[in-house]
Amino acid sequence: MKLFYFILFTFIFSYSFSFGAVQDCDYANSNIGYVKNQTKKALSMKDLQMARFYTFKALNALEKSKAQIEDCGCEYALDSAMENIEYLKNATKATSIAGARILLNKALQFSVESLQAIANHDEHGSIYGSNNLVMNVASPEPEHIMAFLDNTKIQEKIDNSLLKYKNSLDKVINTVDCIEAKAFAQNIYENCEQELLKPHLSESKKYYNLKTKEITAKALERLKNCKN
């Protein structure tokens, strides 16, 4: 029986490690995308207080996202995020809009670098070395196997339930006024962004919000030419 668990665990671990890492990077990518958008909003402001308002939103979101970025395992993304935090902190202390914009432009650059690093993560490796893999595979625990299998079933149920959401969203796009449909989809998208920033969200809720956000992003792409 121990041999069976070891073989099964070795197979599942090799699959779940890459699958889990990809999901962690998806969560990190989503959160950094939110930080990037808030930084761009701060840059578009002509009033210093409003620029600070959006800068604080970007900073708070990035602080909350450090764990997800670390879980992704991309050192380049994490390094860029840490630099980003420092520039955003300094931007909140700027005494002029011109000074704030200089710092915000640097912060925006680091957001872009983090997103690019995650996109190219497979090409430059991971902080999880082969020794770590060997260590984990060497001591398989049956409960870990069952947890993985349970999580997979939950994700399958979520995927199935989201098919209904996708169909409903398609119906809204095809039957409702373009502006109203876009506002409806945008609200859902932003709500998912906010949910994904919560530090203690369960894995199932993270997965649900990430997938909902992805479906909604495709809908918004279809509505991009809709004029307000």
Characterization of the model:
This protein is mainly alpha-helical. It has 2 domains: 123 residues, Four Helix Bundle (Hemerythrin (Met), subunit A); 82 residues. Helix content is 86%, strand content 0%. The protein has 9 helices and no strands. Helix 2 packs antiparallel against helix 3 and helix 7 runs parallel beside helix 9. The longest helix has 43 residues. It is globular and about 50 Å long. The N terminus is likely disordered.
pLDDT averaged over residues: 78
Question: Termini separation (Å)?
Answer: 64 Å
> How many domain units?
2
Tell me what portion of residues adopts beta-strand conformation. Answer: under 5%
Q: CATH fold name of the largest domain, please?
A: Four Helix Bundle (Hemerythrin (Met), subunit A)
Question: How would the global form be characterised?
Answer: globular
What class do helices, strands and sheet pairing give? mainly alpha
Going by CATH, what is the homologous superfamily of the largest domain? IL-4 antagonist (De novo design) like domain
* Radius of gyration, whole Å: 20 Å
The largest β sheet comes out as:
none
Beta strands, count: 0
CATH architecture of the largest domain: Up-down Bundle
Helix content: over 70%
Count of individual helical segments: 9
